User: What shape does this take?
Amino acid sequence: MTKQLRDTIFTCSACDAQYPKWEGRCRGCGKWGTVSELRITNYELRKDATEKAPPAELIEFKAIDATRFPRIETGIGEFDRVLGGGIVPGSLVLIGGAPGIGKSTLLLQALAKIKPPILYFSGEESASQIKSRAERLSLGSLPIQFAQETNIERVAATIDKVAPTLTIIDSIQTLKSEEVGSPAGSINQISVSCAKLMEAAKRGNHSIFIIGHITKSGVVAGPKTLEHLVDTVLYLEGDKNHFYRLLRSVKNRFGTTDEVGVFEMTDTGMDEVKNPSLAFMADFDASAPGTVTTVVMEGTRPFLVEIQALTSKTFFGYPKRA
Assistant: This one.
């Protein structure tokens, strides 16, 4: 017998904790004002679901070749380095960063050398905006099939039909599922949308890149489930008022998380900085007091960096060292 369930729960936007009634402070993370109402609809409960469920398909481990990962190289050395050597087919990658930091620019440049078909779904920009950015970056005519679509069911169906080499989702906060009654960008919408994208990626062995917004604290907006579901989490960091950008991996199921990619934002897009030490030490003055050069390791590469000891006059009774 089928039973239709309609209920209301309250969820925390910071830690995804759920409560039967509203609370001013989340007991899970301790933050105030993060608990909001969420209406759940279109869920069915079947008592005999377990009895009628078919058994899972089993695979013998000895028949699996785990030594081969046919990665897709983008031609951008710093980008492929952080990914672990290139894009793994069937992987779901989340890239976050501040607005205007260069996430879409970097991904557009990575598409230039990838074999089509390539799908680009955007809920924030139109096709003409994407095309004008590509022309500004002198990328020519990219082999992209574009759709301004925010319905996750239609997005997943398109991926299954086209079977693209790579899919770009810009951004996960704009996707919306018909199975959830909350607005786009809410915790449940982001979780459901990411889960459906993961199913599409693994079902057809399609690589998918997700662009995500970040919060004031510098982490990807949405529930922590988002970072747990995806295979790789990348952060593009840097000051918008300066040229250099750092691409870091905080999670990577197919490679190390120690590598750092260094880029320079120019008029023609993101240029690789193949010798970061030379760039970082360009303005180093050995005769200046309070400065010293040291070596730090990031992944497999050593970096030469400058450490400065800065002093200022104190107005307190005794000086303080910080």
Residues 2-52 form one domain. The chain has three domains: 2-52, 72-274, 276-322. The two ends are 68 Å apart (CA to CA). DSSP finds eight helices and 14 strands in the chain.
